[in-house]
Amino acid sequence: MNALTEMKPADLVEEFIRLRDEKQFVEKGFEAEMQTRYTERMEAIKVTLLDLLNKLGVDSIAGKTGTAFKSISTSVTVADAREFRRHVIGSEQWDLADWRPNKTMINDMVERGEPLPPGVNRSAFVNINVRKPT
């Protein structure tokens, strides 16, 4: 038997909440330290390097300790879901969309005793949550 199994459930819950609160406090302090010590300085260096690359009219610069180079990141989001669906369906350009099962609807089907649609997997896991009294 371990020490935890000998503790009262109320004591286990109390200790869990205390540990979770302490962990969150330490994580917030760590995040703040990371931001001020590293992230802000690194971002300032990146801005300076990008400005330098632009002024020199080059895409990269290399030295003995490493290379700085430009790269392009893109983001594609849906501005109007209804219009986008209408376009995909109307033009039959199915490759423009990523189709995935609607989790809420699938879970509702399972709760009603209906079978999963073909080609869909579903997993459920039991977890323990602990919260403070309100």
Rg measurement, Å: 26 Å
Strand-pairing-aware structural class: mainly alpha
Note the overall shape. flat
The helicity comes to 40-55%
Describe the largest sheet. Answer: 2 strands, antiparallel
The helix-strand sequence is HEEHH
Strand content: 5-15%
Extended strand count: 2
Across the major sheet, the strand order is 1-2
SS element count, helices: 3
- Distance, first to last CA: 33 Å
Average pLDDT figure: 93
Runs with pLDDT <50, length 5+? none
Please sum up the structure shown.
The protein has 134 residues and is mainly alpha-helical.
How does this model look, in words?
The protein is 51% helix and 6% strand. With 134 residues, it is mainly α. The longest helix has 48 residues, at 9-56. The radius of gyration is 26 Å and the shape is flat. It starts with 8 loop residues before the first helix and ends in a 23-residue tail after the last helix. The model has no long low-confidence stretch (mean pLDDT 93).
Keywords:
134 residues; single chain; mainly alpha; 2 strands; 3 helices
Describe the secondary-structure layout.
Blueprint: H1 9-56, E1 60-63, E2 66-69, H2 81-91, H3 103-111
